[in-house]
Amino acid sequence: MAVASFKLQFSYIKSQSNFRPALSKYCSRSGRIKCAATTPRKSYNITLLPGDGIGPEVISVAKNVLNLAGSLEGIEFSFNEMPVGGAALDLIGVPLPEETLTVAKQSDAVLLGAIGGYKWDKNEKHLKPETGLLQLREGLGVFANLRPATVLPQLVESSTLKKEVAEGVDLMVVRELTGGIYFGKPRGFDTNEKGQEIGYNTEVYSAFEIDRIARVAFEIARKRNGKLCSVDKANVLEASMLWRKIITALASEFPDVELSHMYVDNAAMQLVRNPKQFDTIVTNNIFGDILSDEASMITGSIGMLPSASLGSSGPGLFEPIHGSAPDIAGQDKANPLATMLSAAMLLKYGLGEENAATRIEMAVLDTLDRGFRTGDIHSFGHKLVGCKEIGEEVMKSVDSGAGYTN
Ligand SMILES: NC(=O)c1ccc[n+]([C@@H]2O[C@H](COP(=O)([O-])OP(=O)(O)OC[C@H]3O[C@@H](n4cnc5c(N)ncnc54)[C@H](O)[C@@H]3O)[C@@H](O)[C@H]2O)c1
């Protein structure tokens, strides 16, 4: 099949490009660039946070692809590589060094690999790599996490679901990222009245937090197929009752979007029963964490899924949804396509550089079309390659402009 026929598969990205004006940073940045008619080249500062496990492997490959796609569009990047997660713990003793956050905040966009690993699993909470990631998201103020899950025709056989169920799935999970139970207080360990040890957390959302994530989700749904499903647990949790109330009230501002509500347990079931019923899903931090991982399996591999985390100002954070995969780290087995597609989201959502983003998206499709597969998406009749080799193949596709028409 020709690459061009797969362009539609990235409709979620294309169709949402109009979403950017809702976020002031993109308007001002792209406006500034367009006005700089005397400047022959555009340049951006990108913070690279390779992190742990397969993070450095996938970031190294994605960086090359980003550079090449950018250079073909007259864009220059300067990269600042900074430690985060376990790498930062080993180097500096904290999972998010101040300098890393400062550099990240001052850059135009942040590209993260992954954090975590067995080595730090037994650390105290404030010294866990995962704490660094939460601090980074909080520090950058990125409250809206966009996680697309699209089943590409080339990979439909890799899905764990039957072909007829998986084929054509194209959904977006909009996850609230800086509130809810991961941040709520009080939290901690204590002893109950029976003298038993307890651990506790707080699921808390303000009306403001719900309203702002809901607005992002309505805007996205509006630019997609106009269907928004809000996922909560309003039959049990007060925070979810407020969630449902605020989102229901907001619906009148978006009459062109069909809003529905679903309990999270049903949503988890429906995602594997009939995922095509979903277009855009909006949900809280913890439900979004779980449901987006579930959605990722429909697409064939967690190694294929990018994400973007956006705030109302400052740089966005772009990262694959997978973790540091310590089981395959250092073996050149990682699939770097999710990180490359995250780099494409960085170009599109973070910098407003749509053409360079499309170059990467089309090159990824072309590489799959030419039969190259890493182990996680490999099936009979395709060429099994490692992280570096698939990176080189994507570079060839970017270089040749395969499937890219502008
Ligand atoms: N955003 C992040 O950085 C992030 C997200 C999730 C987990 N983690 C951390 O990562 C570590 C491992 O967590 P986990 O095992 O639950 O999840 P994981 O995503 O790292 O791995 C789950 C499975 O998917 C495979 N996998 C993941 N990414 C892949 C890729 N790009 N190519 C091929 N296979 C891939 C792994 O080999 C593993 O079998 C933990 O320390 C966890 O806290 C970090």
UniProtKB/TrEMBL annotation:
<dbReference type="InterPro" id="IPR004429">
    <property type="entry name" value="Isopropylmalate_DH"/>
</dbReference>
<dbReference type="GO" id="GO:0000287">
    <property type="term" value="F:magnesium ion binding"/>
</dbReference>
<keyword id="KW-0464">Manganese</keyword>
<comment type="pathway">
    <text>Amino-acid biosynthesis; L-leucine biosynthesis; L-leucine from 3-methyl-2-oxobutanoate: step 3/4.</text>
</comment>
<comment type="function">
    <text>Catalyzes the oxidation of 3-carboxy-2-hydroxy-4-methylpentanoate (3-isopropylmalate) to 3-carboxy-4-methyl-2-oxopentanoate. The product decarboxylates to 4-methyl-2 oxopentanoate.</text>
</comment>
<comment type="similarity">
    <text>Belongs to the isocitrate and isopropylmalate dehydrogenases family.</text>
</comment>
<dbReference type="InterPro" id="IPR019818">
    <property type="entry name" value="IsoCit/isopropylmalate_DH_CS"/>
</dbReference>
<dbReference type="InterPro" id="IPR024084">
    <property type="entry name" value="IsoPropMal-DH-like_dom"/>
</dbReference>
<dbReference type="GO" id="GO:0003862">
    <property type="term" value="F:3-isopropylmalate dehydrogenase activity"/>
</dbReference>
<keyword id="KW-0100">Branched-chain amino acid biosynthesis</keyword>
<keyword id="KW-0560">Oxidoreductase</keyword>
<dbReference type="GO" id="GO:0009098">
    <property type="term" value="P:L-leucine biosynthetic process"/>
</dbReference>
<keyword id="KW-0028">Amino-acid biosynthesis</keyword>
<dbReference type="Pfam" id="PF00180">
    <property type="entry name" value="Iso_dh"/>
</dbReference>
<dbReference type="GO" id="GO:0051287">
    <property type="term" value="F:NAD binding"/>
</dbReference>
<keyword id="KW-0432">Leucine biosynthesis</keyword>
<keyword id="KW-0460">Magnesium</keyword>
<protein>
    <recommendedName>
        <fullName>3-isopropylmalate dehydrogenase</fullName>
        <ecNumber>1.1.1.85</ecNumber>
    </recommendedName>
</protein>
<keyword id="KW-0520">NAD</keyword>
<comment type="subunit">
    <text>Homodimer.</text>
</comment>
<feature type="domain" description="Isopropylmalate dehydrogenase-like">
    <location>
        <begin position="45"/>
        <end position="394"/>
    </location>
</feature>
<keyword id="KW-0479">Metal-binding</keyword>
